[in-house]
Structure formats: structure tokens, C-alpha cells
Amino acid sequence: MNDFINGLPKTELHLHIEGTFEPELMFKIAKRNGIKLKYKSVEELKKKYSFNNLQEFLDIYYAGANVLINEQDFYDLTWAYLQKAHEQNIVHTEIFFDPQTHTQRGIEFGTIINGIKKALNTAKEKLGITSEIIVCFLRHLDEADAIKTLKEILPYKNIVIGVGLDSSELGHPPAKFQKVFEMARNEGFITVAHAGEEGPAEYIWEALQLLKVSRIDHGIRSIDDKLLLKKLAETKIPLTVCPLSNLKLRAIKNMNDLPLKTLLQRGILATVNSDDPAYFGGYINENFHAVANALDLTKEEICQLAKNSFRASFLDDNTKNHWVEKVNVYYENSYL
Q1: Model pLDDT for residues 109-135, shown as the tens digit of each residue
Q2: Where exactly are the structural domains of the chain?
Q3: Is 219 left (phi over 0), alpha (psi -120 to 50) or beta?
Q4: CB of 245 closer than 8 Å to CB of 272
Q5: Catalytic amino acids?
Q6: In this predicted structure, what is the pLDDT of residue 53?
Q7: Rounded distance, CA 195 to CA 207, Å?
Q8: Beta strands per DSSP E along 129-277
Q9: Range 296-323 burial, b when 16+ CB lie within 10 A, else e
Q10: Exposed e or buried b for every residue in 219-256, given b needs 16+ CB within 10 A?
Q11: What is the structure's pLDDT at 209?
């Protein structure tokens, strides 16, 4: 099954580029920029990757991001992920980044996005990976700061496809950002939002009704609301589920508790993604391995998850259909 998963064509829809920051690269860039980390070694830093909740993770996540200063840093970070993505048969990726994490430190928005975009261009040319960029607002900050960030995005509308919402969920409901999301939609951006990870199913309703999102990131708490499950199935609003993230941040106690199989059985467009793979112990293949083993998924269910991701992507319909057919052929050939 693991070999089958490894060879499967995939897309990744829930990936924070700052969350792909492997300790080795972090130390390399810190040294290049003359920044002293508070950890003596890669091994000491890795030992800190044990979290009791989302906030504990975010604290170390933001600390790591502090070493990213120059365009080359953002290029190197993104390129490292894309090489890993290629190894794991990701053919399309829609990445998040958090500009406020960097602009608050005095880094220019253009420095960040230009570094990321150049790496994405290199990946398309050298690896054949297509991609989109989604800018996320930090929900622990106020809406005024998000509006300021939106204005910084506007000159880059030809590069950025959409806006999202991430960071500390509890106490920061989607309703807090209704105005900035309306402004973003009026500017032609697609909208997505993290909801129902640590927060309740009500946050998912708010994201749908107030932010009018095209995708829900995480969304596992939808399992608590039968009416919401029905709504998600009827509207085909995708959920970008991140299994190892949910386990590491204790949104679930065991991988067996992940409601992924139930979501599939309910006809919901659930997908598998890695979220912040450097911190959670696995990229997309490892996430597929984890759910396949814990939930006893069949090859057919694995392929359904892969096809769901292509259908849930912001690719054009012809390209979506092309990759769905590729998955079908891969599945059929696995029995020859």
C-alpha cells in the first residue's frame, strides 16, 4: 500500500511554506544572516517538536520564521519544499504564506512573494510542478491589520490567487474578518479559511456564510454537526484535512479518531495534506500512509482522496479532468 501511495499523482492544497522549514535549512539560513538561534543544534531543536496544542506549535513556528530576511531565503525555503514535493509525486500545489509574520519584522511584502514565486517558476520549468499562491491573514491579529495586508497584496494580483485565514483559532472566529474577506472577494480573490480544527463546527458555518469561502481548511469538527455534513456534501465545499497535524496538535487523540473515512462515506470532498510537514513529522506521502494504516483504507479510497484533491484545486476543469483520469489509469494499472 505504501508503494501504491508513493507512486500516486497528487496535489497538495493545505501547505504553509513556513511550515516546511526543516531544522537543517533553518540553521543554514540563520548562519548566513548572522542570526543566533537559541538552540545549540539541529537535534536540540527537533526535540522541541512535541506540542500539546496549536499555540505551542505556533510559538516555535514564528520563532523559526524570524531567520527569513532576504529574497534568497524565501526562495531556498520554497525550493526545498518543491524538491520534496517532486519526490512524493505532487504535480500541483497551492501554498499558503503568512506575510504578517514577516512584514511585522520589517520585511517588505515584495521580498517575500518574489522569493516564493521565483522558486515556483523554477519548479514549473525544471520539475513540471504547477502551483498557486494563497496569502493568509493571521487571525490572532485584528482585522485592521488584515486590511492593511490586503492592500499590500493588490499590486500582486497576477501572482496571488486567493486569501485565507490561519493561526490561533480559538477565540478568533471567522466573523472577526468578515469585512476584509468581502473586500478581497470584490478584488477578485478566491477565499478559503481554517475552521473546525480546534474551533467548533460553528466556525465552519461562519466561514461558509460570512466569509463565503470556496474551501474549508481542516474542517474535521464538521463531524459534530449533521446538518453541516449534509451542507458540505450537497455544495461540494472541500475540506483540506491534515492528519499528522491533527494528531501532533492533539485535535485528535489517535489517528483512528480522524473522521476522514466517515467524511468520504458521507460524500464530502475530503482531501489529505501535510500542513506544516517539517514540524509534524511527515510530508504528503507520510500523511497518506498514516491514514491508510489507521483507517484501513482501500486503494479505491486512497485514489478517491487523490481525485478529490484535484477536483478541490483551483486548476481549470480540463486540467482537473486530466489528472483525475491519470489517477484512474494508475488505479487500473495497479491490478495488472
Answers
A1: 999 999 999 999 999 999 999 999 999
A2: 2-333
A3: left
A4: no
A5: 197
A6: 86
A7: 7
A8: 130-138, 160-166, 190-195, 215-218, 239-241, 270-272
A9: ebebebbbbbbbbbbbbbbbeeeebeeb
A10: bbbbbebeebbebbeeeebbbbbbbbbbbbbebbeebe
A11: 98
Quote the pTM value.
0.96
104-113 pLDDT, tens digit per residue, is: 999 999 999 9
Query: What is the DSSP secondary structure assignment for residue 159, as one 8-state letter?
Result: T
In whole angstroms, give the CA distance from residue 7 to residue 165: 32
The Cα-based distances of 101 to 59, 137, 192, 321 in angstroms read 12, 9, 19, 36
Residue 201 C-alpha from the chain's centroid: 19
DSSP structure string for 28-73: HHHHHTT---SSSSHHHHHHT---SSHHHHHHHHHHHHTT--SHHH
Superfamily of segment(s) 2-333: Metal-dependent hydrolases (3.20.20.140)
The C-alpha cell at 220 is 474535521
CA distance linking residue 123 with residue 288, whole number of Å: 23
Q: Please report where in the chains the cell 474578518 appears, as a residue.
A: 177
Give pLDDT tens digits for 34-70: 999 888 899 998 888 888 888 888 888 888 899 999 9
Give the per-residue pLDDT at 179.
Answer: 98
Which residues fall within 8 angstroms of residue 334, CB to CB, at 6 or more apart? 4, 299
Q: Lowest mean pLDDT of 25-29, 40-44, 97-101, 251-255, name the range.
A: 40-44
